[in-house]
Amino acid sequence: MKAIARRPFLFFAAAAPMAFAARTWAQDALPDARFVGFAQAINDFEIASGNLALARSTNENIRGYASRSIAEANTASQSLTRARSEAGVSYAPDGATRQRTDGFMAQLNTLQGPAFDTAYANAQLNIMTAAEAQYGAYSQSGGSGPLRRYAQVTFPKMQAQLEYAKRIAGGR
């Protein structure tokens, strides 16, 4: 390939990550205590919905996602507790997120079989999209150093979970 022909390719290859970065961090970071409430609501939902999926689903992909999700959320919850303690930040519930996760859990509790699998996949996609956006924002501009480090460590895992959620939702 000639050097001149490679230039546009190299330009677009270099510019592509910037396009995704702008989209990811376009959301404003929550205040510290609300971020803790948001993160805890996400972790609680991942654990509760994952356990429900393991009990109700026979779909191998859903069960695999649920197992991974439970493990990631348990680890994230422990890390969040340490970071919150180190930062000296109190817990302030994020009402909107808790209301959304409670709504999804109420819906999931009424379903079985393929209907459960579809609702679970869609709920995961919805929640992980919100989590990825907020963790990305907080990892860049969060006010508390320990919580920002927690978000920076957890953010790539949220991105991976979002990609898995897209796969299970798309495979329905």
Report what the structure shows.
It is built from 6 helices and no strands. By secondary structure, the protein is mainly α. It has a single domain (27-170), classed as Ferritin (Up-down Bundle). 37% of the residues are buried. The model is unreliable at 8-25 (pLDDT under 50).
Keywords:
172 residues; mainly alpha; Ferritin; 0% strand
Question: How would you sum up this structure in a few lines?
Answer:
The protein is mainly alpha-helical and 172 residues long. 84% of the residues lie in helices and 0% in strands.
User: Rough shape?
Assistant: elongated
Mean of all residue-level pLDDT scores: 87
SSE ordering: HHHHHH
> What's the main sheet like?
none
- Tally of discrete structural domains: 1
Our measurement of the CA-to-CA distance between the termini, rounded to an integer number of angstroms, reads: 41 Å
Low-confidence spans: pLDDT under 50, at least 5 residues? 8-25
Number of helices: 6
Summarize the SSE layout with pairings.
Blueprint: H1 3-24, H2 32-56, H3 60-87, H4 95-108, H5 113-141, H6 145-170
Helix pairs in contact: 2-3, 2-4, 2-5, 3-6, 4-5, 5-6
